[in-house]
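Problem 12. The chain below contains 269 residues. Write out its predicted structure in token notation.
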Amino acid sequence: MKICELKSFGVFDTAIALSGKKSTNSRITKYFEIEYYIGATGKAIINGQTIDIAPGTLLCGKPGQIRSSIADFRCYYMHVHFPQESPYREMLEQAPVFFQIIDRGIYEGIFESLTIHLLNEGYDEQSDLINARLLELFYNIRKDSQKNVNCDRQPHRERYKLIQSVLEYVQENYREPLTLKDMADIVGYSPNHFHHVFRTVIGKTPQQYLLEERLKHAKWLLVQTEKTLSEIAYECGFSSQSHLCARFKENVFCTPGEYRKRNLNNYRM
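Solution.
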């Protein structure tokens, strides 16, 4: 099944690509350009609009726009062509050009796994794996672009900012034994009210998000280090090796050892 045609993809790093220059030349975009910034202090300029970019910013450039960029930044990128009748073409045309991602882990996971697969295996527009990841990406862009519209309206804006602060805290402190009350206290909500607001904004419970963060880091340690399961469990906030193994199998559908064996060659590039 062909979802779209990828014209180019990869990781763009101004420190490497610009060779000392501070900005790119202006150009007219030919395709949809999707960029997810993973390290950024620079600016993006589209049709004369200048936006300060930061980690977690998503850019949805449209065909025919005039754009340039100012260093420094790193981003995943893909240039995409859609058939005229594609519903995803219409969705991206209507999406904001820039918006800040609430749950960055979703996008980082999609772009990382998709880019690694494309670089290792090459691009096949009929690939079920590639198209599944693209569908996941477009689904989340559709969902989060609407959230971004809502976020610009009071009182939604402050609520989204508060939840973002909790996400950032969890991303930095996932190793700690965080409770629902600990997370609610960050924004001054009661646990019940915080649980409701968090689930409304993110689409999952705070405990589910915390578990996903711990599993994400456990996956990274499994394929990037030779640490034991006991060490990984401790470093990722699980109470024991057996706790890690049980949660891993429930959510990843394999044991940590099986995951390490399957993914070792793909991640060590």
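Discussion. Strands lie at 5-13, 27-28, 32-40, 43-46, 49-52, 57-61, 66-70, 73-81, 98-100. Students who got a different answer should revisit the alignment rule from Section 12.3.
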